[in-house]
Amino acid sequence: MFVELIGYAAGILTLINMFPQVMKSYRTKSVEDVSFLMVLSYALSMVLWVTYAYFINSWPIMITNSIAFFMSAVQLVLMLKYKRQ
Question: Are 63 and 27 in contact (CB under 8 A)?
Fold first, then answer.
């Protein structure tokens, strides 16, 4: 149980990493200072973490990194949308 709590805590901190950038990009409708490669590599690492979690049957890693992937996907969409403007 304690180990799972550590997993959830680490996952929540991972989620928090992308949240401020997504909110700033959405509010300002500007993504000029955001690295596309960084966000893309973050998204790909979340996919790999979810895949790893699936194979070892780790729900804390699977759940939190799935949400983190969704957040990075939102940031990628915002980048594509606001780069064109």
Answer: no
Q: Is the pTM of this model over 0.90?
A: no
From CA 21, how far away is CA 25, in angstroms rounded?
A: 6
Tokens, residue 71: 């957040």
Q: Which stretch of DSSP H or E encloses residue 9? A: helix 2-28
Options 1.20.1280.290, 3.90.79.10, 2.60.120.200, 2.20.28.10; CATH of 2-83? 1.20.1280.290
Q: How does pLDDT run across 12-39, given as a tens digit for each residue?
A: 888 888 899 999 999 999 998 899 999 9
